[in-house]
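Design job #97: recover the sequence.
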Protein backbone atom coordinates (compact mmCIF):
# COMPACT_ATOMS: atom_id res chain seq x y z
CA UNK A 1 0.00 0.00 0.00
CA UNK A 2 1.24 3.50 -0.82
CA UNK A 3 2.81 5.14 2.23
CA UNK A 4 2.21 8.75 1.20
CA UNK A 5 -0.49 11.24 2.06
CA UNK A 6 -0.97 14.59 0.35
CA UNK A 7 -1.74 18.06 1.66
CA UNK A 8 -2.89 20.64 -0.88
CA UNK A 9 -2.70 24.26 0.28
CA UNK A 10 -5.64 25.93 -1.48
CA UNK A 11 -7.00 28.48 0.99
CA UNK A 12 -5.56 31.69 -0.43
CA UNK A 13 -7.09 34.46 -2.49
CA UNK A 14 -4.95 35.73 -5.34
CA UNK A 15 -4.08 39.42 -5.27
CA UNK A 16 -1.79 39.58 -8.30
CA UNK A 17 -4.29 38.04 -10.73
CA UNK A 18 -7.49 39.20 -9.08
CA UNK A 19 -9.04 40.09 -12.43
CA UNK A 20 -9.03 36.34 -13.18
CA UNK A 21 -10.08 35.10 -9.75
CA UNK A 22 -12.92 37.36 -8.65
CA UNK A 23 -15.41 34.51 -8.96
CA UNK A 24 -13.24 31.40 -8.55
CA UNK A 25 -10.35 30.20 -6.40
CA UNK A 26 -7.01 30.52 -8.19
CA UNK A 27 -6.58 26.74 -8.38
CA UNK A 28 -9.77 26.65 -10.48
CA UNK A 29 -7.96 28.41 -13.30
CA UNK A 30 -7.69 26.11 -16.30
CA UNK A 31 -4.71 25.16 -18.41
CA UNK A 32 -5.51 23.15 -21.56
CA UNK A 33 -9.07 22.68 -20.27
CA UNK A 34 -8.11 21.24 -16.87
CA UNK A 35 -8.43 23.02 -13.54
CA UNK A 36 -5.19 23.19 -11.54
CA UNK A 37 -6.80 21.48 -8.55
CA UNK A 38 -7.94 18.60 -10.74
CA UNK A 39 -4.49 18.34 -12.31
CA UNK A 40 -2.90 17.94 -8.86
CA UNK A 41 -5.36 15.22 -7.91
CA UNK A 42 -4.90 13.46 -11.24
CA UNK A 43 -1.16 13.21 -10.53
CA UNK A 44 -1.93 11.97 -7.02
CA UNK A 45 -4.20 9.30 -8.50
CA UNK A 46 -1.58 8.18 -11.01
CA UNK A 47 0.85 7.64 -8.13
CA UNK A 48 -1.72 5.49 -6.29
CA UNK A 49 -1.80 7.87 -3.32
CA UNK A 50 -5.14 7.37 -1.62
CA UNK A 51 -5.33 10.13 1.00
CA UNK A 52 -5.47 13.88 0.38
CA UNK A 53 -6.22 16.77 2.73
CA UNK A 54 -7.15 20.05 1.06
CA UNK A 55 -6.88 23.26 3.07
CA UNK A 56 -9.63 25.57 1.83
CA UNK A 57 -10.65 29.13 2.64
CA UNK A 58 -11.55 31.54 -0.17
CA UNK A 59 -14.71 30.20 -1.88
CA UNK A 60 -14.23 26.92 -0.03
CA UNK A 61 -17.65 25.56 -1.00
CA UNK A 62 -16.60 25.49 -4.64
CA UNK A 63 -13.98 22.86 -3.81
CA UNK A 64 -16.43 20.74 -1.86
CA UNK A 65 -19.10 21.00 -4.56
CA UNK A 66 -16.69 20.16 -7.37
CA UNK A 67 -14.67 17.39 -5.73
CA UNK A 68 -16.82 15.99 -2.95
CA UNK A 69 -15.10 13.50 -0.68
CA UNK A 70 -13.44 11.41 -3.36
CA UNK A 71 -11.56 11.99 -6.61
CA UNK A 72 -11.21 8.66 -8.42
CA UNK A 73 -9.25 6.53 -5.91
CA UNK A 74 -8.29 9.46 -3.65
CA UNK A 75 -10.16 10.06 -0.40
CA UNK A 76 -10.47 13.79 0.26
CA UNK A 77 -10.62 15.47 3.65
CA UNK A 78 -11.08 19.24 3.99
CA UNK A 79 -9.56 21.56 6.58
CA UNK A 80 -11.19 24.98 6.72
CA UNK A 81 -8.88 27.97 7.02
CA UNK A 82 -11.22 30.94 7.30
CA UNK A 83 -8.28 33.17 8.24
CA UNK A 84 -6.87 32.87 4.70
CA UNK A 85 -6.98 36.64 4.13
CA UNK A 86 -4.89 37.41 7.26
CA UNK A 87 -2.41 34.58 7.67
CA UNK A 88 -0.22 32.50 5.42
CA UNK A 89 0.99 29.04 4.40
CA UNK A 90 2.47 28.13 7.76
CA UNK A 91 -0.88 28.48 9.46
CA UNK A 92 -2.53 26.34 6.76
CA UNK A 93 0.10 23.64 7.25
CA UNK A 94 -0.26 23.77 11.03
CA UNK A 95 -4.03 23.30 10.79
CA UNK A 96 -3.54 19.92 9.07
CA UNK A 97 -1.57 18.36 11.92
CA UNK A 98 -4.51 16.35 13.31
CA UNK A 99 -5.30 14.96 9.87
CA UNK A 100 -1.68 13.90 9.41
CA UNK A 101 -1.68 12.20 12.82
CA UNK A 102 -4.93 10.35 12.09
CA UNK A 103 -3.70 8.77 8.84
CA UNK A 104 -1.41 5.75 8.95
CA UNK A 105 1.04 7.15 6.41
CA UNK A 106 4.74 7.88 6.94
CA UNK A 107 5.33 10.56 4.30
CA UNK A 108 3.57 13.89 3.77
CA UNK A 109 3.60 15.44 0.30
CA UNK A 110 2.77 19.17 0.37
CA UNK A 111 1.47 20.87 -2.79
CA UNK A 112 0.79 24.56 -3.23
CA UNK A 113 -2.45 24.58 -5.20
CA UNK A 114 -1.47 27.44 -7.54
CA UNK A 115 1.66 25.60 -8.74
CA UNK A 116 1.95 24.20 -12.27
CA UNK A 117 4.43 21.38 -12.82
CA UNK A 118 4.90 18.24 -14.90
CA UNK A 119 4.05 14.72 -13.83
CA UNK A 120 7.74 13.89 -14.20
CA UNK A 121 8.54 16.56 -11.61
CA UNK A 122 5.97 15.11 -9.22
CA UNK A 123 7.36 11.61 -9.66
CA UNK A 124 10.86 12.92 -8.96
CA UNK A 125 9.65 14.17 -5.58
CA UNK A 126 7.72 10.99 -4.75
CA UNK A 127 10.60 8.68 -5.66
CA UNK A 128 13.44 10.71 -4.20
CA UNK A 129 15.58 8.57 -1.91
CA UNK A 130 15.48 11.20 0.84
CA UNK A 131 12.32 11.54 2.93
CA UNK A 132 12.60 15.31 3.46
CA UNK A 133 12.94 17.19 0.20
CA UNK A 134 12.22 20.64 -1.26
CA UNK A 135 12.08 20.90 -5.05
CA UNK A 136 13.79 24.03 -6.35
CA UNK A 137 14.45 25.73 -9.66
CA UNK A 138 18.16 26.68 -9.76
CA UNK A 139 17.59 28.69 -12.97
CA UNK A 140 14.92 30.95 -11.49
CA UNK A 141 14.37 34.54 -12.59
CA UNK A 142 13.15 37.38 -10.42
CA UNK A 143 9.76 38.43 -11.78
CA UNK A 144 7.49 39.47 -8.90
CA UNK A 145 10.00 40.15 -6.08
CA UNK A 146 8.13 37.82 -3.75
CA UNK A 147 9.97 34.69 -4.87
CA UNK A 148 10.62 32.21 -2.07
CA UNK A 149 14.21 30.97 -2.09
CA UNK A 150 15.70 27.83 -0.59
CA UNK A 151 19.12 28.41 0.96
CA UNK A 152 21.68 25.91 2.16
CA UNK A 153 24.84 23.92 1.50
CA UNK A 154 25.72 20.31 0.75
CA UNK A 155 22.07 19.47 -0.04
CA UNK A 156 20.96 20.58 3.44
CA UNK A 157 18.29 23.29 3.76
CA UNK A 158 19.48 26.01 6.12
CA UNK A 159 16.88 28.69 5.53
CA UNK A 160 13.89 29.76 3.46
CA UNK A 161 13.81 33.43 2.52
CA UNK A 162 11.97 35.79 0.26
CA UNK A 163 14.17 37.32 -2.42
CA UNK A 164 13.83 40.83 -0.94
CA UNK A 165 15.52 39.58 2.25
CA UNK A 166 18.77 39.27 0.28
CA UNK A 167 19.63 35.77 1.49
CA UNK A 168 22.94 33.97 1.00
CA UNK A 169 23.75 30.41 -0.09
CA UNK A 170 20.80 30.36 -2.48
CA UNK A 171 20.12 26.94 -4.01
CA UNK A 172 17.11 28.00 -6.08
CA UNK A 173 13.49 29.12 -6.04
CA UNK A 174 11.02 26.91 -4.21
CA UNK A 175 8.57 25.51 -6.77
CA UNK A 176 5.71 24.70 -4.40
CA UNK A 177 6.33 20.97 -3.90
CA UNK A 178 7.99 19.29 -0.95
CA UNK A 179 7.77 16.22 1.23
CA UNK A 180 8.51 15.39 4.84
CA UNK A 181 8.35 12.22 6.82
CA UNK A 182 5.64 12.24 9.46
CA UNK A 183 8.04 12.76 12.37
CA UNK A 184 9.68 15.82 10.78
CA UNK A 185 6.29 17.22 9.78
CA UNK A 186 4.97 17.02 13.34
CA UNK A 187 8.23 18.47 14.71
CA UNK A 188 7.77 21.35 12.26
CA UNK A 189 4.22 21.88 13.53
CA UNK A 190 5.51 21.98 17.12
CA UNK A 191 8.07 24.58 16.06
CA UNK A 192 5.32 26.61 14.34
CA UNK A 193 3.17 26.56 17.46
CA UNK A 194 5.89 28.40 19.39
CA UNK A 195 6.81 30.58 16.42
CA UNK A 196 3.25 31.89 16.11
CA UNK A 197 3.36 33.07 19.73
CA UNK A 198 6.53 35.10 19.25
CA UNK A 199 6.40 36.12 15.58
CA UNK A 200 2.74 35.94 14.54
CA UNK A 201 1.05 33.96 11.79
CA UNK A 202 1.65 36.03 8.68
CA UNK A 203 4.98 34.51 7.62
CA UNK A 204 4.92 32.22 4.59
CA UNK A 205 7.26 29.65 6.15
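Job complete. Output follows.
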Amino acid sequence: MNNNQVIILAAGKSARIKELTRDIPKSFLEISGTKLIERHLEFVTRCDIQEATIVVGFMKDKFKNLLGNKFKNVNITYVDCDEYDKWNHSWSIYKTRNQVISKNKNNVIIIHADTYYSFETFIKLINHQEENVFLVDPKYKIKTYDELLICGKNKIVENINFVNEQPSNIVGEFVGLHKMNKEVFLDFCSYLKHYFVTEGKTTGY
